[in-house]
Sequence to fold (140 residues):
Amino acid sequence: MFAGIGPLDVVTLVILAVVIFGPDKLPKLIQDTMGFIRKVRTFADSAKEDIRSELGPEFQDFEFQDLHPKTFVRKQLLGGNEDPLGFKEIRDGLDFRSVLNDEPAPSASVGLTKPAGPVPATGGPALHEGERPPFDPDAT
Fold:
């Protein structure tokens, strides 16, 4: 919330508060402000507990942060499963260090089968002499 406030801003606010309210009224103002913040927190916590008690026992572990759109969508799409889309197997099969060091990656099977015959540098199966490469009109 206050990530954009730096140390110089805090010092400026403190000096401004001392100038406006004076050194004799400033402690009372800080004490009143902290009391107000405590009351607001107490009110919010009691409102949360009232809502949880009204929802019933099946919602006792309900968190209000779950209603934030990012959290809500993430939980609905991914569910409670740790890796429902199966990206863990793919991520584990990739070796970024070998790519960064220009070393050949170790052959790790990620559920793929090796094609029959030699494979050209483009990654597709080798074509026989006189055979035309496949053409996909939707891809162009």
